[in-house]
Amino acid sequence: MGAALPTNNKLLTKAKRYFAEMTHMKPLFVSLFCLFLPTMAAASETMALKLDLTDHWVGYAAIVVFVVAYVAVILEERIHMRKSKPVLAAAGVIWLMIALAYNAGGLPHMVEEGIRHNFLEYTELFFFLLVAMTYINAMIERGVFDELRNWLVVRGLSYRALFWITGILAFFISPIADNLTTALIMCAVVMAVGKDKPKFVTLACINIVVSANAGGAFSPFGDITTLMVWQKGILEFGTFFKLLVPSMVNFLVPAAIMHFALPSGRPIAGTSDGNDLKFGGLIIVGLFLATIVTAVSFHNFLHIPPVFGMMLGLAYLKFFAFYLRHQSHIDYESTDIPPGSDEVEGFDIFDKIAKAEWDTLFFFYGVILAVGGLGFIGYLGMASEFIYGELGATTANVLVGVMSAIVDNIPVMFAVLTMNPAMSETQWLLVTLTAGVGGSLLSIGSAAGVALMGQARGHYTFFSHLKWTPVIALGYGASIFVHFLVNG
Question: Residue 93 and residue 87: Cα distance in Å, rounded?
Fold first, then answer.
């Protein structure tokens, strides 16, 4: 660890003693010079910026803590411990060790500034996602997605037609909803109609994971990584849609190859459970779209962080929830609904907020603060110099996608944003694309893949996905090629 600079008082005392000995200088000049010494001392401390902890025990210990925490995240399904717990602990321990080092070095306030910077970034992401999750939960409660599933089940489509329809729907729904919810909905359709054809379920689930991740890559709302890039102000809202064609290639290339491995024939058409769409469901869909428009308008035209637009959009839903509860009360008064039934309770907006993915939200906190701590220590700067300086932006950004399949695209993308390498728009689009679709290379590389391993247990597994990884990698490479062809 580098030696700490003298404190302001020590520096002031030494300087005054030095200039007092310079008796040949005029007293007025000496007095004026001494008046500026506190400012100079503060400037000297600011120039120190941060302590170099990369070769310090704190730096080494921070890396060990982060790696151990992330191994626990990867093994979540085996050890049955939610992923937020280890990263929350890692974030706290890493910043605790940093604070101890900086207090010993005489720079206690630097750590506070670093934490506030990272915490503000997390706060914007937290409230943005909380509003989006609340809307999704409201649509689920109103039966919007159940109605879509019923519509597909009763069509009596062939296995190949279902394969393509579920993939295409996943591709175009995930830019609006999140890829996790989209994948779960489409998987429910596949499981309902294809339970007697395990091979179909396996291939359809792989296709859904790839298409949901690819669809999320060309929209600021489709994936956490694209949302982080947009909120950071790196790319404008409309710029993301330049990735539409490369994202489609990423989905279509493996889907076209898997098409020939699908079983022929068609499943027996299922029966619908009736009309699952409740009153107000489509209105909530419209309010969600209005919320997205509000967030985009706030960011593009008023230069206000988009999270404020999302919070205003939450007010739309709250007012409509008030109307739904009032309507339910009227229905209760005019019918013979027994007291204590679900209908009496009506639509409770706070119930939808409570059902948000809190484990995921706390996981993001742990990741952002832990990675931010490693960046504060200096490791991300070192990594940026090597990866982007030595390997070049293109190679580095392609590797980001591969790493996203092993680790997770959220900490990887946050690390890139923290490094903030000097890149062109084309390269920022490339890293957005690769971080979004790279997770499809392995089943554990994305939230969609992990969720489907649980929902289609026994049919969609790590190794069944791994069997098709070369085909998915072909689509990965093709999407990068098309990106440079279209946007280069």
Answer: 10
Separation between Cα atoms, residue 432 and residue 448, nearest integer Å: 18
Q: 12 to each of 107, 267, 334, 340, how far by Cα in Å? A: 17, 85, 82, 74
> Could you give the angle at which helices 393-406 and 409-419 cross, rounded to 10 degrees?
150
Helix axes of 358-377 and 409-419: crossing angle, nearest 10 degrees: 40
pLDDT tens by residue, 232-256:
889 988 899 999 999 999 999 999 9
CA–CA dist 370, 411 (Å, integer)? 9
Lowest mean pLDDT among 206-220, 256-270, 465-479: 256-270
> Using CA atoms, how far apart are residues 276 and 301, in angstroms rounded to an integer?
39
Q: Which residue do the tokens 């962080």 mark?
A: 305
User: How many angstroms separate the CA atoms of 21 and 15, rounded?
Assistant: 10
What's the pTM? 0.73
The CA distance from 80 to 18, in Å, is: 66
* Rg, Å, the chain Cα set: 27
Distance separating alpha carbons of residues 211 and 200, to the nearest angstrom: 16
Task: Report d(CA 453, CA 476) in Å as an integer.
Answer: 22
